[in-house]
Amino acid sequence: MSRTLAPFLLALLLGALPAAAQEAPHPPPPPSVPAQPPPPRSTPRAQPTLTDEDREVVENLELLESLDATEDLDVLLELSQKE
User: Is 22 contained in some domain?
Assistant: First the structure.
């Protein structure tokens, strides 16, 4: 190697090394995600017609739920009066 070429190569390498050190490494590519099947179509369901017996059961259930809520309120009222 000639004496004039050696300093040039040395300067070139010294200049390239800090630049290479400053470059951020490229992040790895994201993993491939398998394609998911499309969601099933939601078909609107027709509301079933209630029989007389079904209506009676629903009404009784609503009545029982309201009675339960009333009992809870009664207990709270009793507790508040005792204090």
Answer: no
How would you write the pLDDT of the chain (83 residues) with one tens digit per residue?
556 667 666 666 666 555 545 566 677 777 776 667 767 776 666 777 889 999 999 999 998 888 888 888 888 888 888 76
What's the predicted TM-score (pTM) here? 0.34
What is the DSSP secondary-structure string of the chain? --TTHHHHHHHHHHHHHHHHHHSPPPPPPPPPPPPPPPPPP-PPPPPPPPPHHHHHHHHHHHHHHHHHHHHHHHHHHHHHHH-
Range of the domain at 63: 50-83
